[in-house]
Each structure stands twice: as C-alpha cells, then as structure tokens.
Amino acid sequence: MESNSVSPMPDMAPMAEFDKTPPTPPEDTLPMDDLPPPPTTVTVQEEKEKEAHRHYEEENEWGCGSWLEYALVMILACILLLASLALTLYWVIKHRGGFAWRDDPIKQFNFHPVLMVAGFITFSGFSILLYRICRCCRRIYVKLLHTVFHALAIPCVAVGFLTVLDSHNLAQPPIPNFYSLHSWIGLVTMGLFAIQFVVGFFSFLILLCCEGATAGFRASLVPIHASFGLTTFMLAIAACLTGLTEKVFFSLSSYYTTFPPEGNVVNALGMVLVALAIVTGYILQREEFRFRAHILIRSGDL
Model's pTM, two decimal places? Predict the structure, then answer.
C-alpha cells in the first residue's frame, strides 16, 4: 500500500526587502529658478546684422576732435561763400560807381560780376555743401533745398550773361565778345551748369514718382552728378579769377603795380575764391562728413 508522501519543495532564495522611503535629492541640485536659460540659436542672418551694426557704430564714432574739425571747416566755408559776394558788392559800389542799365553801359557791366558770383559761387556753393551741412535731415528735403539753391542761381547767371553782352554792344566803340580765356571758361561753366541742372532735376526729382523702378538708375548717376558738380564749381572759380584779372588790368593798367585800394580789394576777393576752392574740395573729399545718420561720441573724449 502506497503511502501519500509529499515531496520536499526545492530550496528558494529568500526575497529581498526593498527600502520604500523616497530617495533624497543630491546636495548640489539647484532650484529650477536658478538654472541658466537654454541656449538660443542665432541664425547666420542675425549674426551678420549684428556684425554690420557693430561696424557701423565704429565707423560713425566721432570724438570731440572730429566734431571740432567738422564745425570749423563748415563755418569757414559758409563765411567764405558770403564774403565773396560781400567783397564783390563792395568793390562794385565803392570803386566802380554802382549800377545802371542801358543808359550807362559801363555801370551796366557791374551787374555781371555781382550776379555771376552770386549765382555760380554763393548759391551753387551752398547747394553743394547742403549734403554736408544738413546731415540729420531727410534726404528728400535736402534734395529739394539743393534744387532751390540751383534754381536761384539760374536767373543770376542768365541776367549776368545778358548784361555783359549788352554793355559790350552798347559801348563806344563796341567791345568784342568771346575772345578772352575768361569768356571761354565762362561758356564751358554755363554749359556744364545747365546740363547738371537738367539731369539732376529729372533724375532725382521727377523719377521719384516711380522710385522703386528707377532706384538703381538714380544710384548710378549719383557719383557722376557729384563729380561734375564739383568740376563746375571749380571752373566757376577759375572764370571769376580770370575775369577779375582781366578787368583790373583794363581798368587800372600800370596803376595796378602801385597797390591801389581797388587793386587790393580785387586781390582780396581773388584770395577768398582760392581759399573757398581749397576748403570746399577738402570738405567734399572727407568721407566722414558724408554720413548723415547716427553718430556716436566716445565717453573718454568728453
């Protein structure tokens, strides 16, 4: 008879007891508020814009010395522009007897130097320097002022040209026209001035009606217009100098060598025109004076 025996169970490893307490955070863990922000991704375009802005600020950073230089040359140029016209008026009124019309051809001629200096030197000079003087104004306003000054010069040049022709023809005996170096330089200057005004007017004002379509064309004309504008101004100064020399030789003749008061006034006027040519050329060739926007001043220079 079989006995009911229970086979022994195999030996089993005792179950491990786990610690059910929550783990303690490490001591060097920081609160979420103190964590640094995640790194931001900077695109290539943004990096280029930042670099360009830094470069722009470095180029436009002016110290007190730069501001002083700018103020001195601009004030000097304005004084010379006004002094040239003032000296011409003083010479004509004090030493040439003033003005008259067709009844006195000699005094009618006196309109010629005054109007030519007013148109070609004073008004044209200010129109050129406007792009350096009005550096903080909107460009469209500067262009309008530039056109206004040139428009003021046109009647001065036209009337001055007609008066010299009329006075020569009415003189007894009549004086020939267009034979001297002064007249040849004057004709070239008048031609360039007329071309400059027509091209500038249509290119930079009329074409603004379709600004987007003509932006490239107008931009390509800017250096050409500026170069010929300076050339015209220098030719005008040359015409004035040759005209003054011609007039004083005809009027004073050998008396000119004795340093008369009229000769000294004409010489002073000529030196003012020479100084004006130097200062204007210096202003226009300085690239720093061309900037119109934000200019910085270093704190160390204050």
Answer: 0.75
